[in-house]
TrEMBL record:
It comes from the Bacteria. Residues 1-20 form the signal peptide. TPR repeats lie at residues 60-93, 101-134. It comes from Flammeovirga yaeyamensis. This is Tetratricopeptide repeat protein.
Length: 249
């Protein structure tokens, strides 16, 4: 029986005499594919995952890793199919799977890139049910909630992501601030984005959105706003130059 909140590791057991020559096992091919994946050789990785699945079409790990390779190639439909196959193996098996939440989280990301917000939220929610300690799942669900379910649900997820990351994830603060700016809660946005800058003094995007929050609050681009935009440009945020040309020259 599965214990989905306490997932244990299982492994393929390979038997045979050492003096026989044999082809690589499904898991060995999967491991080789993962090495290609880490080397950004995505097509080679996919070929190895395909070979692994030819050896064992119940290898959920290979389906999941192949999906990640397709995601890296921005082939999101193919990625979603691979993640779904991993999920099917997981759901139809009596075995326990390590980190099964990843299958749903990854499919949620594929749905997100395809702008299927409702399906993405469903997948992220399932991933959280399997493991509620992963900050990135809450962060990505927050972004999707902001699209279709409103500010309150998005902010709740951002806060959970911040909590789970012990306040060390600058992205969570930045994206929370963006949502607050969108609903014109400028004071809250400024306070939130300051946390991102404190974590990374060279975070160009944070300076940019701090400038937007401040200009929204005061209704104009003053010297402080222009200084923030200048910092954003210095630290490599590409859209800062346009705003400087519009408002600061």
């Amino acid at each position: 029986m599965k214990h989905k909140q306490n997932i244990t590791l299982f492994a393929l057991i390979i038997s045979g005499l050492s003096f026989f020559s044999c082809s690589p096992s499904s898991q060995e091919l999967t491991n080789q594919g993962k090495q290609k994946l880490s080397d950004s050789k995505f097509k080679e990785a996919i070929s190895l995952f395909d070979a692994a699945l030819k050896e064992d079409n119940q290898n959920a790990d290979a389906y999941n890793a192949r999906g990640v390779a397709f995601m890296s190639l921005e082939e999101y439909s193919q990625a979603k199919k691979s993640f779904t196959l991993a999920i099917n193996v997981y759901e139809n098996s009596e075995k326990d799977f390590p980190k099964a939440y990843q299958y749903f989280y990854n499919r949620g990301n594929a749905n997100r890139f395809q702008r299927d917000h409702e399906e993405a939220i469903l997948d992220y929610t399932k991933a959280i049910q399997l493991d509620d300690t992963i900050a990135d799942i809450y962060l990505n669900r927050a972004l999707e909630n902001a699209e279709i379910n409103g500010v309150d649900q998005a902010l709740a997820d951002f806060d959970k992501a911040i909590e789970l990351s012990n306040g060390k994830d600058k992205r969570a603060f930045l994206h929370k601030a963006k949502v607050l700016i969108a609903v014109k809660q400028f004071d809250a946005a400024l306070k939130t984005i300051e946390n991102a800058i404190n974590l990374d003094k060279k975070y160009g995007e944070a300076y940019y959105f701090k400038a937007l929050a401040l200009s929204g609050k005061i209704g104009k681009a003053n010297d402080e706003v222009c200084d923030l935009l200048a910092s954003a440009e210095v630290f490599g945020y590409p859209y800062a130059a346009t705003e400087i040309q519009k408002h600061c020259e």
